[in-house]
Amino acid sequence: MKFTKIASPEQIERNWVLIDAEGKTFGRLITEVATRLRGKDKPYFTPNVDCGDFVVIINASKAKFNGAGKVANKEYFTHSGYFGSTKSVKMTELLEKNPEKLYKLATRGMLPKTKLGRAMLKKLKVYAGEEHPHTAQIAK
């Protein structure tokens, strides 16, 4: 009989991946990031184990957005649970003030909505410029 191998957390090898967002389409970039964070690109992918790599995105504010008026019209909503506490932020404001939050919100939607998904999202590091403090990890 042949059995499917299931990876245990001790067997997983995590790498650091550097992605430059300059000139890349935002949505396609986020799908690539979510795939790497989840570990679906590895041969030993196991759905109930965090198999993914660490991902560092630089030049986050220089990504391209396709779609007529998507950047101007798209809104992100938050709600605290109290009546009338819905707040919205336009995508243009997020891109100018805090591109890191925009990338994390988009990636979070593509990951599992569980403790495992939250653990995967912690491995995402986003920086608006070229500088990042993870040069030692990536230089391997």
TrEMBL record:
Q: Which UniProt keywords apply?
A: Ribonucleoprotein, Ribosomal protein
Q: Does the keyword Ribosomal protein apply?
A: yes
Tell me, how does this one assemble? Part of the 50S ribosomal subunit.
The UniProt entry, under InterPro entries, shows: Ribosomal_uL13 (IPR005822), Ribosomal_uL13_bac-type (IPR005823), Ribosomal_uL13_sf (IPR036899)
> Can you say what this protein is called?
Large ribosomal subunit protein uL13
Fetch the PANTHER family from UniProt: LARGE RIBOSOMAL SUBUNIT PROTEIN UL13M, RIBOSOMAL PROTEIN L13
What Pfam families does this protein's entry cite?
Ribosomal_L13 (PF00572)
According to its UniProt record, which protein family does this protein belong to?
Belongs to the universal ribosomal protein uL13 family.
Q: Which domain of life is it from?
A: Bacteria
GO cellular component entries: ribosome
Q: What does this protein do?
A: This protein is one of the early assembly proteins of the 50S ribosomal subunit, although it is not seen to bind rRNA by itself. It is important during the early stages of 50S assembly.
